[in-house]
Amino acid sequence: MAGSLDESAVRHVAHLARLKITDEEAARYADQLSKILDHVRQLNELDTSNVPPTAHPLAVTNVFREDEVRPSWSSDAALANAPDRHGEFFRVPKVLDQEEA
Predict the structure, then answer these.
(1) Domains in the chain, number
(2) Does residue 17 fall inside a structural domain?
(3) Nearby residues of 75 by Cβ (< 8 Å), 6 or more positions away
(4) What is the CATH number for 21?
(5) What is the mean pLDDT of residues 60-71?
(6) Cα(56)–Cα(33) distance, integer angstroms
(7) If 0-12 CB within 10 Å is exposed, 13-18 middle and 19+ buried, where does residue 22 land?
(8) Which has the closest alpha carbon to 91: 99, 82, 80, 100?
(9) Would you list the DSSP string of the chain?
(10) N or C: which end of the chain has fewer CB within 10 A?
């Protein structure tokens, strides 16, 4: 394979990414990455001059609904399954210390 990756290149990239890989993994990744690069080389040979750039292969449009006011749950209904409540509020563990915030 012309321009294929060798195990030393894979080890170098793994080192840069702070990944520990075994010799077996380096050999396997070198083979897999070489095949990926060969495929990309094949794709680069295609004439795409008449293909418009796209972000998605299908036409995608946002579907918005009207923002309408609807009745909301009562506090009792919203807090019915709350494990701990304080009046009309959920009680949760403190996550910020006021003196340090």
Answers:
(1) 1
(2) yes
(3) 88
(4) 1.10.20
(5) 88
(6) 25
(7) exposed
(8) 82
(9) -TTPPPHHHHHHHHHHTT----HHHHHHHHHHHHHHHHHHHHHHTS--TTSPP-SSSS------------PPPPHHHHTTT-SSEETTEE-----S-TTT-
(10) C
pLDDT higher than threshold 60 for residue 101:
no
pLDDT at 1: 45
Give the angle 62-65-69 at the CA atoms, nearest 5°.
150
**pLDDT reading at 58 higher than 90:** no
Q: What is the radius of gyration, based on Cα positions, of the chain?
A: 28
